[in-house]
Amino acid sequence: xxxxxxxxxxxxxxxxxxxxxxxxxxxxxxxxxxxxxxxxxxxxxxxxxxxxxxxxxxxxxxxx
Length: 64
Hints:
Number of helices: 3
């Protein structure tokens, strides 16, 4: 049995949606930190390419 994924695609999609939401300003740093963890994980390569690209963009925007 394959190991359980720590970052299911649906959870990452939700984090991306939250990061893009206008009302999340106060907690945006938490969402971005979680997306950074996703990006740095071994499982990142298993996510769909468009989702990986969006995660990279969000994290890069937060770092500038």
